Amino acid sequence: MAATDASSNAQVGQAVPEAEINAQVKAELAAGATKVDVVNPVTGEVIRTVKPSGVHTLISLVTPGCTTTSVCIPGNPPYAYQGKGTINTNIQGRNNYRSGSWTSQLKYTVSGAEYLGTMTATKQGPGGSVVFGQYVNIKQVRIF
Fold it and tell me: What is the DSSP letter of 102?
């Protein structure tokens, strides 16, 4: 029988719903945390980092994919985000993104040339998009 958390019926290893993660992040920030990392417990990868700001909306992944209003990183699979904030990612081999109805900015490395370091794309207002002349690895999405 799988182990369970003492405060719920959730099984260890079971995925936590996005809404529950967002609620816990908000609670941590409300309790005075200056930074909250959401971590993949299997890989240890920081999925996103949230810091307190004057904005109370948190960035979140839109599923099952892009919408006309989300910040969209097309591909297989597509990644789409909404809400203000910053999220760390590791999306490999993409050559464009769309800002949807948000103002957004990406940080990326160039595929095969990571020695160049992390670069920042130009900030895009609502309806803007960027096409990269080479495949890049998206490292961070920021929505203003």
Answer: S
Q: How far is CA 35 from the centre of its chain?
A: 15
What confidence tens digit (pLDDT) does each residue in 65-98 have? 899 999 999 999 999 999 998 888 989 999 999 9
pTM for this entry: 0.61
The answer regarding whether domain 18-143 maps to CATH 2.60.20.30 reads: yes
- Chain centre distance of CA 31: 22
Q: Which residues are paired to 82 by β-bridges?
A: 60
Residue 15 dihedral angles phi and psi, to the nearest 5° = -65, 140
Q: Which residue is listed with tokens 């200056």?
A: 34
Contact 47, 21 (CB under 8 A): no
Q: How far is CA 92 from the centre of its chain?
A: 14
117-120 long-range contacts (CB < 8 A, ≥24 apart) are none
Domain residue limits, the chain: 18-143
Residue/partner pairs of 50-56 with CB below 8 Å, 24 or more apart = 50/25, 50/85, 50/86, 51/86, 53/84, 53/85, 55/84, 55/85, 56/26
